[in-house]
Write a structure and sequence with these properties.
The chain is mainly alpha-helical. The protein is built from 19 helices and four strands. Strands 1-2 form a two-stranded antiparallel sheet. A two-stranded antiparallel ribbon has the order 3-4. Strand 3 and strand 4 form a beta hairpin.
Length: 463
Amino acid sequence: MKLLKRAWAWLDDRIGWSSAIWPIVVHPVPKVNWWYVLGSATLIAFIVQVVTGVALAFTYVPAPNAAYESLDFITNRAVFGNVVRGLHYWGSSAMVVLAFAHLAHVFLIGAFKFPREVNWLTGVVLLGMTLAMAFTGQLLRWNQDAYWAVSLMASMASRVPLVGDLLVDIIIAGQTVGGATLTRFYATHVFLIPAAMFVLVGLHLYLVIRHGVSEMPRPGRPVNPKTYRQEYDELLHRDGIPFWPDFAWKDVVFALVTGSLVLLLAVVLGAPELGPQANPTNLEAHPKPDWYFLWLFALLSYAPPALESLVIVGLPLLLGILLVIVPFTAPAGERSWKRRPWAVATVVFFGLSAGALMWQGHRSPWAPVLHAEVPASVSGDLRGDAARGSALFASEACLACHLVGGAGGQRGPDLTFVGDRLTREQLIWRILYGGNNMPAYGQMLSPDDLDALVAFLSERRSR
């Protein structure tokens, strides 16, 4: 025992635990509720991502001819590989959820106000890096979804005026998605972003210690920059508790519960299926991003072609600017959400909007339905040109985007009763010249085929 005490005294003298670190560990903080554990839980989720990511990196091969096979080996043959990959996958989802929940909580309690404006800004940058890490991780699976999702992203970025080519080069490291793209995404995902996040996390924690944990807001107690620090010191002197263990036990309990849930999901559900391997020659793909980007995926799908560039670049940029200016638009005043109904309305609006868009992105009703056939209930009694038009409707892939009799895609209008809405002349015009995302078929159809299609569609009536 004496030997251990002497060893600890020697180490303590060198690292300064008792004189420099312990006072920080037990520094006084205000009494707060359970919502304050979201920040520390996000940090724990980040550490889990780093640990599981390092474990995966021992086997993963960042090359187009081996990336998919190495992940398949990890998932199906490596000891505990499926659990480790599951921890990384479910842990990333937990990190994104916790980061957004922490941001919403800080916004609702006005903890971005004086003197914690820079705390907010570093948190916003960390949120952006969290999303960037999630996006770059998707391509590393090197499956069809990943390949075409990044190709689609590059295609959209190329339409941005002036900087389109530069954005494409940044995203895919060339003109097409290939080995250089995979290497760039791997280096960004594994080295660049985590290193930057470690620096920012350190800065964020330093600022939390410097300005203290924000106290719970009270209605009618606005922030006054001239008196806030004195009032905060008086609060700590009167009601403060040591960070460890009186404050931090909630962080520990919540981190254990969250970690147990992620582990349970990883063991029971495991890692997601890899799906088909990336194949640029296979065009029958319906790329869909991971759930955290489904809202943007849905917006892009519903946006008119002329606004796609604005949505893919302008909307994230606008959201980023709005988040950055938050602490400067209201640096003082009321913090309680009960006196800031606009703050509650903002969180509810963005929460419901994101939820609705993610649900639509998950359903993807705009995705073409390939190899669909006209139902027998529609084509069974047709004769002459209408019967031939029914066959053309399927063979020319019209059915991939249009619903007829309950079969087909939903990207275009439902044509089950199109004969009630459009005249023969209007049908001819729309087929020949297209419009609203529909291509023009004037150069692809013979006059006889056009007559047959119009005859088929004209008979699509409710009675």
